[in-house]
């Protein structure tokens, strides 16, 4: 039986690994960090959209399925530094602090995911300049009882609970200025979810979402959006955030309320930037090592988006999950399973 | 534009006479035409208007609304795009040209619209349509100033004052006693000169400038 190399231990890579192992293949799962679970674990996501289900309920079983399967060998804190050969005879060098080893593989799955867009470059939003301008990923971690603030939403500047919170949508997405004209595909539902979580925990708070359009196309997303307005009185304003300044020591934002045709100045205690998904360095690295094609934004290009969505530009190398572009967890799990089936099919002949 | 219906019936009751005056129809007769968009697109700086997706980043951060009520670059673009020429002229013609070219909009537009240039193109479009009619003093002065710079490469103080009064149809005012005495004082104190010098070979530059502006 051939061994499959899976690069990336996020939800996609984990699902692909356990599916392959269940089919009887040996799997080597290489993860650069010292934990499994990808971005979900890194930023300690607490509750998942759209059901507000604990992230652990989803990610823990996926991790457990990998750790408890003896067909899978997990290499944490490891990198694939070189790959040679062709399908179905690849040789890959895996490197970590203990040293380097070379092994043979029949196929390779790339599931290296994404990185959160770094909003520092959007200078007008003041991230990095004003402490109380934070990212959605940072809020995920704050809302988690096991996170840095033990589940409390706190202003980084003074540790106080903010009363008025604004959320800016599409930060680093749908934006030619930063070279990311695509939609992040999760920002809308994640912000809606976070707004609800905040209102549940702090019913006296006011949450304002500044958006261009709310893209609620996933299962249960539109319903969650309705709930946010009807049950939680979250205010959605149709206008993209224009700038953040300090007015009398308070954060103040400018945007246009486009439905009223008027610019507004709005003083708040905290601003959450719904930062989107960018191609991660890990993905760009992997593409280089493997010599597979990337698209204009650095994400991995399928051989054919419609007909072979999980095949890379090179035979025997497969791709899945958020390294192909923004994707939510549900679809990542589907992708993980789909790529496993594709790999199994390719190794049979 | 909203139109008053001749007959207004609400819940089966026909309103006549004075009631109708109180209840003008709010319906906007959307008669989308891309005719004006096509025109603006072709003007210098106008081409990126087609990229706008009406997000409001430009208008949200624009310098002007603090000083000029209702100045709204996003809306100017929208009105041109949808062919609402009447609204553009009636409600916005006195605003469009006030843009101070600070470029905040252009630097921030997430869609790659050169917003400042587009606003200028819309102002030019309205100017070409002759909607400004009689010029304001500011506008008249700007025009005279530019004409003189292009023609002579410099400003001749006496000439510009004369042209300004002439352009605004007030040559008579210029010859009033107090204006003449002011002029005399400025002349004797050396604040203004009767004849400005010429710039060598300016005619060639002037010709190029005019071609460029055309
Ligand atoms: C703020 C925020 C909140 C979100 N909340 C939700 C939600 O509520 N519901 C939902 O459905 N989705 C949500 N998402 C989306 C979710 O994060 C992604 O769908 C999911 O993390 C993608 O999984 P992945 O395995 O493809 O990639 P990742 O999670 O990015 O995992 C990739 C893994 O690969 C590793 N890796 C990368 N490069 C290499 C390399 N070269 N070598 C070895 N290892 C490497 C990384 O360290 C990482 O562990 C959210 C996204 C954001 C931005
Ligand atoms: S998902 Fe929402 S926040 Fe993200 S880019 Fe698309 S519209 Fe913007
Ligand atoms: S910022 Fe750009 S895309 Fe947004 S409304 Fe202004 S011109 Fe249009
Ligand atoms: S360039 Fe003009 S339209 Fe743009 S922000 Fe400045 S004043 Fe407003």
DSSP E strands of chain B, number:
2
What is the count of β-strands of chain A?
20
User: What profile does the largest beta sheet of chain A have?
Assistant: 5 strands, parallel
Q: Termini of chain B, distance in Å?
A: 34 Å
Give the topology string of chain B: H per helix, E per strand.
EEHHHHHHHHHHHH
Write down the CATH topology of the largest domain in chain A: FAD/NAD(P)-binding domain
- Superfamily at the CATH H level of the largest domain in chain A? FAD/NAD(P)-binding domain
The ordered string of helix (H) and strand (E) elements of chain A is: EHEHEEHEEEEEEEHEHEHEEEEEEHEH
Taken together, the total number of domains of chain A comes to 2
Per-chain topology:
The complex is a heterodimer of chains A (349) and B (214).
Chain A: E1 3-7, H1 11-22, E2 26-30, H2 38-42, E3 47-48, E4 53-54, H3 55-67, E5 72-75, E6 79-86, E7 89-96, E8 99-105, E9 107-110, E10 114-116, E11 133-135, H4 136-143, E12 164-171, H5 187-201, E13 206-211, H6 221-230, E14 235-238, E15 241-247, E16 250-257, E17 262-268, E18 270-275, E19 277-279, H7 281-290, E20 317-319, H8 329-348
Parallel strand pairs in A: 1-2, 1-9, 2-5, 9-20, 11-18, 12-13, 12-18, 13-14
Antiparallel strand pairs in A: 3-4, 6-7, 7-8, 10-19, 15-16, 16-17
Helix pairs in contact in A: 1-3, 1-8, 4-5, 5-6
Chain B: E1 8-10, E2 13-15, H1 18-22, H2 35-42, H3 57-61, H4 73-81, H5 85-96, H6 104-108, H7 115-128, H8 137-152, H9 157-167, H10 171-174, H11 177-188, H12 202-213
Antiparallel strand pairs in B: 1-2
The complex binds flavin-adenine dinucleotide and iron/sulfur cluster (SF4) (3 copies).
């Amino acid at each position: 039986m051939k061994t499959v190399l899976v690069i990336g231990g996020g939800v996609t890579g984990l699902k692909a690994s356990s599916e392959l192992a269940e089919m009887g293949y040996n799997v080597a799962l290489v993860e650069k960090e010292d934990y499994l679970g990808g971005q979900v674990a890194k930023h300690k996501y607490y509750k998942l959209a759209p059901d507000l289900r604990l992230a652990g309920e989803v990610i823990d079983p996926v991790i457990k399925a990998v750790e408890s399967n003896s067909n899978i060998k997990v290499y944490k804190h490891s990198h694939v530094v070189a790959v040679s050969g062709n399908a179905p005879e690849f040789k890959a060098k895996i490197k970590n602090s203990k040293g380097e080893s070379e092994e043979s593989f029949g196929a390779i799955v790339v599931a290296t995911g994404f990185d959160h867009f770094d909003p520092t470059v959007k200078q007008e939003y003041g991230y990095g300049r004003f402490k109380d301008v934070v990212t959605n990923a940072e809020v995920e971690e704050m809302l988690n009882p096991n996170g840095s603030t033990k589940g409390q939403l706190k202003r980084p500047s003074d540790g106080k609970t903010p009363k008025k919170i604004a959320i800016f949508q599409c930060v680093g997405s749908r934006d030619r200025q930063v070279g990311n004209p695509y939609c992040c595909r999760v920002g809308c539902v994640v912000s809606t979810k976070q707004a609800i979580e905040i209102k549940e925990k702090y019913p006296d708070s006011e949450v304002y979402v500044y958006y261009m359009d709310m893209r609620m196309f996933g299962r249960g997303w539109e319903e969650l959006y309705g709930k946010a307005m009807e049950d939680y009185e979250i205010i959605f304003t149709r206008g993209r955030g224009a700038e953040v300044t300090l007015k009398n020591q308070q954060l103040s934002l400018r945007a246009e309320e486009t439905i009223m045709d008027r610019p507004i100045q709005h003083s708040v205690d905290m601003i959450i930037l719904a930062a989107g998904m960018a191609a991660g360095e890990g993905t760009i690295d992997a593409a280089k090592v493997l010599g597979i094609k990337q698209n204009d934004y650095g994400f991995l290009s399928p051989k054919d988006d419609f007909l072979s969505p999980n095949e890379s530009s090179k035979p025997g190398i497969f791709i899945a999950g958020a390294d192909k572009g923004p994707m939510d967890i549900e679809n990542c799990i589907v992708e993980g399973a789909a790529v496993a089936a594709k790999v199994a099919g390719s190794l049979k002949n | 534009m909203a139109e008053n219906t001749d007959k207004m019936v609400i819940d089966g009751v026909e309103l006549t006479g004075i009631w109708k005056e109180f209840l003008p129809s709010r319906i906007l007769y959307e008669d989308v035409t891309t005719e004006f968009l096509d025109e603006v697109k072709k003007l210098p700086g106008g081409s990126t208007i087609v990229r706008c997706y009406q997000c409001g980043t430009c208008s949200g951060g624009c310098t002007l609304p603090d000083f000029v009520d209702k100045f709204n670059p996003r809306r100017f673009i929208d009105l041109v795009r949808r062919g609402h020429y009447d609204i553009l002229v009636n409600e916005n013609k006195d605003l469009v040209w006030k843009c101070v070219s600070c470029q905040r909009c252009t630097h921030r537009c997430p869609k790659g619209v050169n917003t400042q240039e587009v606003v200028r193109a819309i102002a030019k479009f309205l100017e070409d349509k002759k909607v400004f009619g009689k010029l304001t003093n500011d506008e008249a002065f700007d025009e005279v100033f530019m004409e003189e710079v292009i023609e002579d490469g410099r400003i001749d103080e006496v000439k510009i004052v004369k042209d300004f009064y002439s352009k605004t149809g007030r040559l008579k005012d210029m010859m009033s006693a107090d204006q003449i005495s002011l002029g005399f004082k400025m002349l004797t104190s050396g604040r203004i000169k009767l004849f400005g010098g010429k710039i060598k070979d300016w005619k060639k530059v002037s010709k190029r400038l005019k071609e460029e502006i055309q």
